[in-house]
């Protein structure tokens, strides 16, 4: 019987059971908060109460959408097939001034180290367990007709609709939060070392890119513990995005110390010294600061004769202090304990990491502006009115109610928008656009 021998890359593709899910550390989510509930238009009708008057209750506010950093979540895998999230809308108001219930907020848990962006810029950098950011605000509930009673209009039939909620398209990027990052060429033994260092059980195999997403493990040394991330293997040109270069390298940015794992035996026919220099070059070219990150060298597979033959040459050629170079075997755990003790001691003397966003300013929450401000500008053969307060009012107006247009006319006059339109040159019959409404201008009262 003749058995065909496949190259490692082809064998990996031919054995799907050995493959992991593709790297997913950047996703787009679509979120929508809950619309506000409609206000009620009702009149109090009760025996022996001849002047009951309006008693419509308000609608409830819609639920908002939050992102929350959760230490128990480590990947974006749950977003692979679900990327649309919607909060509950507010309940409608009822008679007897009964208010609608508030819509439930929706909280979406994401890993620590999640960077959140919209088209406007950076919204949040979630680095602490339990940290939250609101990404879509629920709409206000509409007012019931009991709010609109006046001395001259004691029985209003007008009530507001609920305010439409905010919605947003988010871009989430995961930058793994770990104290120590394991870097090195594919098959250098990073996953095996992570398994030897901690209780993590990553998939291990002699295939290029067996690890295609970061694996995390917690290492305990007495009362001190730290998090180690197995960063997927890098290749030449990774800093330019070759392969999955940028996807891999972003996970190195937040580590405090790097363990550079080198296959000292060169079992793939590679020169260990070339491997070491290539990874260092990729780190420096991607982000110069990474080249100066504290680094410990782990010369792996030291139990093999080929590695023993290379150790002295590597120690002499690599410009690291002697006490930062460790000959280890992840397979037999030889030298691993000494490596752990050294790394723990180094981390204990390092200051707490600064994980604030770099070179970007947060755009959330949006700075407060005067809601009364508005602008009038030509649009097509009509006029466009823009302004936060007037646009919200229009969106909450139920034009099916007979009193709605009269109220809009009063608001336009009281707010100065009517005068601004006249000054801009509005004519009888011109169209005036506010939010999604199209109104026809009339000079008649």
Description:
A hairpin with a 2-residue loop joins strand 17 (431-434) and strand 18. The chain is built from ten helices and 18 strands. The chain has 445 residues and is of the alpha/beta class. Mean pLDDT is 83; it is low at 1-22, 204-212 and 235-246. It starts with 7 loop residues before the first helix and ends in a 5-residue tail after the last strand. The chain is elongated. A six-stranded mixed beta sheet has the order 10-11-9-12-13-14, sandwiched between helices.
Globally, the shape reads elongated
Estimated structural class: alpha/beta
Mean pLDDT rating = 83
Fraction of residues in helix: 10-25%
List the strand order in the largest sheet: 10-11-9-12-13-14
Poorly predicted runs of 5 or more residues: 1-22, 204-212, 235-246
Number of helices: 10
Largest sheet: 6 strands, mixed
Strand content: 15-25%
Strands, count: 18
SSE order: HEEEEEEEEEHEEHEHHEHEHEEHHHEE
First and last CA, distance: 98 Å
**Spatial extent as radius of gyration:** 32 Å
């Amino acid at each position: 019987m003749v058995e065909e021998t496949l190259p490692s890359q082809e064998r990996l593709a031919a054995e799907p059971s050995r493959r992991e899910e593709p790297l997913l550390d950047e996703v787009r989510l679509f979120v929508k908060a809950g619309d506000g509930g409609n206000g009620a238009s009702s009149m109090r009708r009760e025996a022996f109460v001849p002047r009951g008057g309006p008693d419509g209750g308000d609608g409830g506010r819609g639920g908002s959408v939050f992102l929350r950093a959760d230490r128990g979540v480590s990947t974006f895998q749950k977003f692979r097939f679900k990327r649309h999230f919607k909060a509950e809308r507010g309940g409608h108001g009822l008679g007897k001034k009964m208010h609608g219930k508030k819509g439930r907020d929706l909280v979406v848990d994401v890993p620590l180290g999640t960077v959140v962006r919209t088209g406007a810029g950076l919204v949040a950098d979630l680095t602490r367990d339990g940290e939250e950011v609101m990404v879509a605000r629920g709409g206000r509930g509409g007012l019931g007709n009991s709010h609109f009673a006046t001395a001259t209009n004691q029985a209003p039939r007008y009530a507001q609709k609920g305010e439409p909620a905010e919605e947003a398209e988010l871009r989430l990027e995961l930058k793994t939060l770990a104290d120590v990052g394991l870097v090195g060429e594919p098959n250098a033994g990073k996953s095996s070392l992570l398994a030897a260092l901690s209780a993590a059980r990553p998939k291990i195999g002699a295939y290029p890119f067996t690890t295609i997403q970061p694996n995390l493990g917690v290492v305990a040394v007495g009362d001190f513990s730290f998090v180690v991330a197995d960063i997927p293997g890098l290749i030449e040109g990774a800093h330019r995005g070759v392969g999955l270069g940028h996807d891999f390298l972003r996970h190195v940015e937040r580590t405090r110390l790097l363990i550079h794992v080198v296959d000292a035996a060169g079992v793939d026919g590679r020169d260990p010294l070339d491997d070491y220099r290539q990874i260092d070059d990729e780190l420096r070219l991607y982000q110069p600061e990474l080249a100066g990150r504290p680094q410990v060298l782990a010369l792996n597979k030291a139990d093999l004769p080929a590695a023993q033959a290379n150790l002295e040459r590597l120690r002499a050629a690599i410009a690291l202090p002697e006490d930062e170079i460790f000959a280890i075997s992840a397979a037999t755990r030889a030298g691993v304990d000494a490596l752990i003790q050294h790394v723990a001691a180094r981390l204990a003397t390092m200051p707490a990491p600064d994980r604030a966003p770099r070179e970007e300013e947060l755009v959330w929450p949006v700075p407060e502006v005067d809601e009364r401000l508005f602008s009038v500008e030509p649009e097509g053969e009509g006029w466009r009115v823009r302004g936060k307060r007037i646009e919200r009012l229009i969106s909450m107006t139920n034009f099916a109610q007979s009193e709605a247009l009269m109220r809009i006319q009063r608001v336009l006059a009281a707010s100065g928008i009517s005068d601004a339109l006249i000054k801009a040159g509005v004519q009888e019959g011109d169209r005036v656009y506010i939010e999604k409404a199209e109104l026809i201008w009339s000079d008649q009262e």
